[in-house]
Amino acid sequence: MPQPPGSLAVAAAYFLIYVVWGSTYYFIGVCLHDFPPFVLGTVRFAVAGLALLAVCRLRGERLLRRGLIFKSAVCGIILLFVDQGVIMFAQRYVSSSLVAIMASSTALWIMLLDIPQWRRNFRSVSTVAGIVLGFLGVAMLYLEQLNMQRPGGSHYEYGVLLLIGGCISWACGTLYSKYHIRGNDDGGLSSSAWQMLGAGVVFALCAGLSGDFSSLQLSAVSAVSWLSLAYLIVFGSMMAYTAYIWLLRVRPATEVATHAYVNPVVAVVIGAGLGHEDVTLIQLAGLAVILISVMMVNRK
Q: Which of 78-87, 176-185, 231-240 has the lowest mean pLDDT?
């Protein structure tokens, strides 16, 4: 029988998805100053995936398994390509702080879409009330963007709509990984590697079709952007994402989704401190409402 995971390993994994992931929103925004979105996704996930495959090879893992590659690639496209692509495009409309605040509703979508757990998830009044409250918080943020006057008539509320789609995609990918990529037979680190490579390939195809590769000027990329990209590859993808996939195997999906408690707080602090982003009272109120709702549905 497999040994249960150690408490230290679980704590370290939660630190990565709580704190490190919260910081990635800011560094994505930094990279987007110099990298087109599809190119950023290509380099980030292709490099991280290839590096993890090399590590798996050194560990003696069997990598070329059709079932493993197919399931992992599907999961990677849903989790990484759609969600991260949405985040990058949304940051053309809204700040990294607001992106992270909206992403905090992911835990609610996971609970709403986790059909096998409906009987358990919706048996208490507080859970249902928490979900309703959370979506009211999302509505607050959307209405704020809808009513704000922006130069040039920009429709910044589109960023919120994009983020809602990204949250749903991340929830679907999380549940797919939870129920269809499980156990030692489906790979551990190698599954994460193939997920990243799957996303990287789709990002590359989109970059080629959209002309993002031809618009990239490597000589104009600043040192800060290169360092931010390295941070996203090593800490955001290779370490934090792998920790997330591992936690989905050893802990309940709704518990792992509680990274939504901390990610937006970290992102708001970093965005306001390093990026000098404006955080409105409505955004802070929306964050409070969403986090209270997530705590209501996960109060145990």
A: 176-185
Token code pair at residue 211:
């002309």
Using alpha carbons, select from 71, 61, 44 the residue that is nearest to residue 190.
61
Domain ranges of the chain: 15-297
Model confidence over 257-270: pLDDT tens digits? Answer: 777 767 777 887 88
Lookup: tokens for 117: 């757990």
